[in-house]
């Protein structure tokens, strides 16, 4: 699997500017609105957004450089290392660690994380360690799942081992959200949530942004378009003389506010006038007449 650096086509020591420029170039190339009905372009766009989200943030980039695909579990890994004594490990994307106090030191990721290997995709096994009163696990959800709420089957501490349970993820969770689950054994499980980047929507807290392609005539004269949101399709009114990048606010059409039942953020539709790809002779006459009119104003 390609690294985030390879996805963006930059070297590991690339500057923030290099990463930003690479992202913008690739995002324009693979944007779903410019590649309608192209599933491969949409997949590439998601990968590009995910890579940029990690590498554009200094803290997450540092964790990724050290732990590879396991960067989201960096805090758990380092906490476990500190409890087990001073050791340093170099992580690979395969989910195993090497290095440490002695030559050839190697162990299974599930052992390191106390039997939660399946949650992290490592397929680790549970080890008897006595009752664990508090445990952590990481889960990743899509933006659609964060919008509607979802469920995940995860391993929970159970005496000296672990058992699989179905955990509810409430609507409105965001990156860094923690879902606490109280277990009948008296232990508590904390789910650390990561929300995957979306191909169309950009999230800012409980608000969302989405590009809204608008026919050029509708941008100039005003009109209506169908806009697909996370909650369904709605009819969006485009004001006359709308400019590229103009924001139209749709109150209450954003993400659910975590812990505030019935309340949602706003959705901002960003007007993107679309130039015609093929111009008929009649349309060309209209544009030529328009140019003459505009030239006469000077």
Would you kindly provide a written description of the structure presented here, covering whatever features stand out?
With 298 residues, the protein is an alpha+beta fold. Among the domains are: 82 residues, HSP40/DNAj peptide-binding domain, CATH 2.60.260.20; 78 residues, Sandwich (HSP40/DNAj peptide-binding domain). Helix content is 30%, strand content 29%. The chain has nine helices and 14 strands. A four-stranded mixed beta sheet has the order 9-10-14-13. A three-stranded antiparallel beta sheet has the order 1-2-3. Helix 2 packs antiparallel against helix 3.
Major sheet: size, sense and barrel closure? 4 strands, mixed
Q: Strand order within the widest sheet?
A: 9-10-14-13
From the alpha carbons, calculate the radius of gyration and give it in angstroms. Answer: 25 Å
Structural class: alpha+beta
**How many helices does DSSP assign?**
9
Arithmetic mean of pLDDT? 78
What is the oligomeric state here?
single chain
Question: Roughly what percent helix?
Answer: 25-40%
CATH topology of the domain at 116-197: HSP40/DNAj peptide-binding domain
Sketch the topology as an H/E string, one letter per element: HHHHHEEEHEHEEEEEEHEEEEH
Distance between the termini: 57 Å
CATH class of the domain at 116-197: Mainly Beta
**What is the CATH superfamily classification of the domain at 116-197?**
Urease metallochaperone UreE, N-terminal domain
Report the strand count.
14
Key descriptive features of the protein:
3-stranded antiparallel β-sheet; HSP40/DNAj peptide-binding domain; elongated; alpha+beta; 9 helices; 14 strands; 298 residues
């Amino acid at each position: 699997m390609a690294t985030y650096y390879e996805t963006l086509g930059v070297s590991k020591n690339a500057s923030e500017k290099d990463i930003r420029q690479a992202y913008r170039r690739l995002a324009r190339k693979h944007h779903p609105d410019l590649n309608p009905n192209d599933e491969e372009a949409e997949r590439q766009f998601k990968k590009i957004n995910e890579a940029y989200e990690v590498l554009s943030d200094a803290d997450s980039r540092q964790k990724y450089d050290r732990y590879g695909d396991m960067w989201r579990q960096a805090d758990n890994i380092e906490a476990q290392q500190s409890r087990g004594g001073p050791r340093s490990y170099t992580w690979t994307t395969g989910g195993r660690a090497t290095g440490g106090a002695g030559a050839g030191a190697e162990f299974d990721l599930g052992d390191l994380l106390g039997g939660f290997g399946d949650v992290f995709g490592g397929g680790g096994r549970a080890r008897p360690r006595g009752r664990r009163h508090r445990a952590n696990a990481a889960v990743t959800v899509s933006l659609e799942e964060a919008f509607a709420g979802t469920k995940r089957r995860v391993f929970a501490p159970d005496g000296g081992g672990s058992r699989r349970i179905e955990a509810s993820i409430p609507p409105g969770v965001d990156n860094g959200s923690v879902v606490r689950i109280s277990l009948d054994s008296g232990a508590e499980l904390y789910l650390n949530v990561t929300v995957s980047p979306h191909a169309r929507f950009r999230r800012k807290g409980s608000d969302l942004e989405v590009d809204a392609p608008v026919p050029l005539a509708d941008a100039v004269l005003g009109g209506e378009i169908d806009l697909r949101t996370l909650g369904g399709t709605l009819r969006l009114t485009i004001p006359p003389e709308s400019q590229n990048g103009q924001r139209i606010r749709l109150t209450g059409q954003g993400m659910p506010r975590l812990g505030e039942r019935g309340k949602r953020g706003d959705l901002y539709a960003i007007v993107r006038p679309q130039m015609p790809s093929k111009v008929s002779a009649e349309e060309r006459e209209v544009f030529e007449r328009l140019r003459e009119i505009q030239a006469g104003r000077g």
